[in-house]
Design goal:
single chain, 13 helices, alpha+beta, five-stranded antiparallel sheet
């Protein structure tokens, strides 16, 4: 019959709280019931529940709906919504109650998991209504911005009196699509915070939605580090460009990625942008390049000759090394110091010393002759 095949736990209890009838779904959920009290079957108790909805229904004749926690036939904790309906006779007496239980254990588990995820996810989460009110915020957002629930997002996060012009939430409400953007906000301590925000339609039903889930990731430190890196790169590039020593950097494919003015002039390069690693083999000593290839650290050549693009021999000091970051090869770097001026000074010094020796000799001879 219908009572037996309904896929919902249904039981009938009398005024002494005895289970006098139950369907198959009830027995599959709660186990054997014949000759037992409802509180024994539902909750494995030896006495009535303290706030028994069944007792209240027997007394006032009003149907009840409530959420209950009990045990299934395996002794596992279970949650269910119970509808308690009194059977009222013509004389007003209530001999029986019909109780229908809908299992929500899995729903509750999902709800708890969602709650944990919402609260503990490592970014700020806001649920925002169509009038831009923050109806809910997670723990991280409250820690950063204070108690913002019930406030307009533009006033709570930006101290504005009206909505932002380029608002990702507004764009999502208009077209129902996911939108991302950058937002500068103010935390509860008055400090500016940079956020990457993503607005997603929330609680969508038949294509319609009244709320938006906004995910906001704090990128303040990333942007600060990015600015610092840009400054460092600019400073390093300026120092390398203005260095009196020649600097050549090649990438992992052997193409020149940086050549400063000193290196270009020193080696008389016709087109520095087209310089390849192979071109250096005709300029630098072969043994030096082989040692650079084989060594993980810098290779020094205190004095050698290199050949310029115009076949001119130039005395230099060379340093070369492979560029590796965390085991990844990024290219090579070479430093070239021009020793020509030093060599000229050395030659001039030797010539001066030679002339001085000749002078002393002539003076000695003159003195002897005299």
């Amino acid at each position: 019959n219908l009572f037996s095949i309904i896929p919902m736990s249904i039981a009938v209890i009398d005024q002494d709280f005895n289970l006098i009838k139950a369907n198959k779904a009830f027995e599959q959920k709660f186990g054997a019931w014949k000759g037992k009290k409802c509180y024994r079957v539902y909750k494995n108790r030896d006495s009535m529940c303290e706030f028994c909805k069944g007792a209240a229904a027997f007394e006032d004749g009003i149907p009840k709906i409530n959420e209950e926690v009990g045990y299934d036939k395996s002794g596992q904790l279970t949650r269910y919504i119970k509808h308690t309906i009194p059977i009222i006779e013509d004389d007003g007496s209530i001999p029986f109650l019909i109780e229908m239980a809908t299992d929500i254990t899995e729903v509750e588990h999902l709800k708890q998991e969602y709650q944990i995820l919402f609260e503990e996810v490592p970014c700020n989460l806001f649920i925002i209504s169509k009038d831009y009110e923050i109806v809910r915020a997670n723990k991280r957002a409250k820690d950063m911005f204070g108690d913002v629930e019930g406030k307009f997002c533009f006033s709570a996060l930006k101290s504005r009196d009206n909505k932002c012009i380029d608002c990702t939430v507004n764009r999502t409400f208009e077209d129902g699509m996911i939108h991302s953007g950058h937002s500068t906000v103010i935390n509860k301590y008055g400090k500016q915070i940079q956020l990457h925000v993503t607005a997603v339609p929330y609680n969508v039903e038949n294509g319609n939605f009244d709320y938006i889930l906004e995910m906001a990731v704090d990128i303040t430190q990333i942007l600060e580090l990015k600015d610092e890196l840009k400054k460092s790169d600019k400073l390093m590039e300026s120092m390398m460009s203005t260095s009196l020593d020649g600097i050549i950097i090649t990438d992992e494919k052997g193409s020149a990625s940086f050549i400063n003015r000193a290196a270009s002039g020193m080696l008389e390069l016709k087109d520095p942008t087209r310089l390849k690693e192979n071109d250096l083999s005709s300029m630098f000593p072969e043994s030096f390049l082989k040692e650079v290839n084989a060594q993980s650290g810098p290779v020094y050549l205190l004095e050698t000759l290199v050949k310029t693009y115009k076949e001119k021999l130039l005395p230099v000091r060379l340093v070369g090394m492979n560029l590796n970051v965390e085991g990844k090869f990024l290219g090579k770097a070479y430093w070239v110091q021009d020793l020509q001026e030093i060599k000229n000074l050395e030659s001039e010094k030797l010539e001066t010393e030679r002339l001085a020796a000749v002078g002393q000799t002539v003076a000695g001879l003159a003195h002897g002759i005299k």
